[in-house]
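job 3f2a | input accepted
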Amino acid sequence: MATLKASYQWLNSEPGPKMIQEALNLHGTAERPGKGDNPAIIGWADEVGADIRKIYFADDTPWCGLFMAVVAKRAGKRVVKDPLWALNWGTFGKFTEEPMLGDVLVFVRKTREGKKAGHVGLYVGEDESAYHVLGGNQGDCVCVQPIAKSRLYAARRPLYNQQPSNVRKIPLAAVGSLSTDES
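job 3f2a | predicted structure (183 res):
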């Protein structure tokens, strides 16, 4: 596990939610550049099951949905149908109007060909113009990146038997440039 940037070190002391803890365990996992694949990422497809491995076979294929599926599964949450397609995470859990720690955020993005696609990750905070998102395939690795609020497609809260007491809005300072390409 790679070290979180200083501005996100506080996440290491959060007692939950479980999906955040599972995602933090994978922080720093990265694609292998060039030929060859990271066996950890490829292994997630086998772990998630549901014939995902028949579709997902190389780490240069967008994998934010795969990351979210393995995190949800390890946290004991239901994985959405066809989890590799990020926009499908817009059906996860229940709708929330106000995203908070551990919520699943789904964003719209454009492919290099100009087509509509998505990106999915977990809310860890926000500044005035961006959500700070812990996700996979952000700069080809698992990390926290700010993503423009204007790109938000859906915010979904996991279904909890008892919601963790630390699920809350997290105001953060703006850091660096906004993520614009999560593919």
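job 3f2a | The longest strand covers residues 116-126.
job 3f2a | closed
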